[in-house]
Amino acid sequence: MNKEKFDFGSLVDEQLKDIRRSYKFGNSFNEDKAIVRPKKPHVEIGVDDNATIKQAWEEGAAVPGLVEKEIKGGYEVTVAGQRAFCPFSQIDKIRGDASQYVGRKFDFLVSEYSQDERGLNVVVSRRELMEIESAALKEALLAELNEGETLNGTVTRVMDFGAFVDLGGVEGLIPAREIAWEKVDDLNRILKAGDGVTVKVMRIDRDEGRISLSRRECMARVFKRSPDDEAAAKSAAEVAEWMEENRKRNAGVGNIASAFDALKI
Questions:
Q1: How many domains are contained in the chain?
Q2: Which residues, 6+ apart, have CB-to-CB distance to 217 below 8 Å?
Q3: Which residues of 90-119 are buried (b: 16+ CB within 10 A; e: fewer)?
Q4: Residue 63 maps to which CATH number?
Q5: Residue 199: is its pLDDT beyond 90?
Q6: Does residue 214 surpass a pLDDT of 50?
Q7: Residues 123, 158 within the same domain
Q8: pLDDT exceeds cutoff 80 at 48
């Protein structure tokens, strides 16, 4: 990888600065592949507003929040002294047990900020922030990767067409033909999720964010003989074995003849 290091925090800030909040979770992307939302018009802060949350909502900034408890449909989160709601689907990429979140502080993005007759409504998302950070990390790692590099990774999932490998924040694919030198009918017989694997970076498509890897290029190549070669080798071995046995049987023949010659008068 290139020795020049990326400022990950600045990269995330760049991703976040163009984000704007809407009342829906639909995402779109700008030319720099940063997640953007329709820009909301600026509204002056009223007596019932929370200035910190309103600013975070309008600017797409992350705010810290404490997960208080699990409630119907999600979690109650305290953000800047205000009760907020985080849907189950937005607490994590893959939601775990409530004990992993309740009582802990996380950073959130404000997904919804509105008022009705009941007061201020705030919806937050931790997952969305995680996805933005992952995208920024992937961008940084892709910029550092070079074709021909050998890296260690972890298999994340095995499909019929190949195996996906986590290289430390960015995923690459080992096509089925690159798993091993010999043909493999069942890839699950060779690899499974969680396996450590050494791979060579074969191709990088930075525009599409795709990385093609090879496992077999990091393995010693074993050449298999064709059926005809196997038959010829077996025949040669059988002939050699017969000749060795024949030599042993006839080893004393010459000595016996010499003994008879010596007895002749």
A1: 2
A2: 178, 199, 200, 202
A3: bbeeeeeeeeebeeeebebbbbbbeeeeee
A4: 2.40.50.140
A5: yes
A6: yes
A7: no
A8: no
Q: Using the structure block, give the residue that is written with the tokens 């017969």.
A: 242
pLDDT tens-digit series, residues 150-193: 999 999 999 999 999 999 888 899 999 999 998 888 999 999 99
Q: How far apart are CA 152 and CA 5, in angstroms?
A: 20
Domain, as residue range, for 182: 147-247
- The pairing of beta strand 82-87 with beta strand 74-79: antiparallel
Of the pLDDT bands very low, low, confident and very high (cuts 50, 70, 90), residue 35 is very low
Q: What is the pTM of this model?
A: 0.55
For tokens 């024949």, the residue is 246
The two three-digit tokens of residue 185, written as one number: 């009918």
The pLDDT assigned to 29 comes to 42
Which tokens hold the place of 221? 């190549």
Instruction: Please check whether residue 166 lies inside any domain of the structure.
Output: yes
At residue 86, what is the residue type?
Answer: C
Long-range CB pairs of 188-195 (<8 Å, 24+ gap) are 188/158, 191/155, 191/158, 191/163, 192/155, 192/158, 193/155, 193/156, 193/157, 193/158, 194/154, 194/155, 195/154, 195/155
Look at the chain and count its residues.
265
Residue 22 one-letter amino acid:
S
13 and 102 both lie in a single domain? yes
Enter the tokens of residue 133.
Answer: 């950070």
Residue 217: band (very low, low, confident or very high) from pLDDT cuts 50, 70, 90: very high
